[in-house]
Every structure is written in structure tokens, then in C-alpha cells.
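Issue 218. Parser rejects a valid record. Input:
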Amino acid sequence: MWSKKKSANGAQVSAFSVNKSADEWRRELTPEQFSVLRRHGTERPRSSPLDKEYGAGAYMCAGCGQALFDADAKFDSGSGWPSFFRPLPNAVGTTEDRSLFMARTEVHCARCGGHLGHVFPDGPNPTGERYCMNGVALKFVPE
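Output the parser choked on:
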């Protein structure tokens, strides 16, 4: 799994600063959050109220609370998922996702490794990127 690396003695250790067991995550997250953040699931399109949230504020990781996106970078992509054209600096990481018989770029929280969604090269200016995120993986904190 992309969130693991091997130590000098060969034991697997997490590459992220927030490390919890699956049982700890299950206790802290809703079943839907656990499915998306820890098992790489995807919520149904248009199921998250955050898709239509356009107030000032910040979007945080629902797993660890790290700030991921500023509301100023949010746009309506029409996809049914909250979409952003730019994450906050050093907030997310990416990895290649070859599931579902296609190649995509998966986006995860740089702090806890939680799966957030995918990034696509069809977004608006100034970046041309569309960070298509699962709303259940985010918490909106208004200003």
C-alpha cells in the first residue's frame, strides 16, 4: 500500500505523521468516512452537502483535521463531488491509481494518508486541475 514503507529491519512503518490502527480509525470515523478515507472508497455523486457549499472558509481532512483546500479554490465542476483547482501548499500527496481498469491520480492527505479523491487535468484556470474530492473525507470550517 502507498502509505507504508519499510524500516531498516524490514518492518512496515507508516510514511505519514498521523498513524493509527484500523481499529482506532473505525472508532473515530463514521462508517462512510472509514470506507473512503481508509479503504479508498467513493461516495455517491451529489450525496455530499459540501458539493454545493460556497461560503468562505477552509476544507479540512475529516480524518486528522489538516487544512487541505481554501474555499477560494472551490468551483462547481458539475461532477457531483466538491471540486477545487488548487490544494493548500504541502497539504496533499498523490499516487498512481490503476484500479477500475484505468490510470488515475489519487489524492491523499499528506498528514494521515487518508484517501480524498482524484485529480484530473480538466479544471479551470489558473491551474487547469480538478481536484475531485469525496465530501465525506472533508470537513468545512467557515470563516
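Fixed in the parser; the record now loads. Residues 1 and 78 are 31 Å apart (CA to CA).
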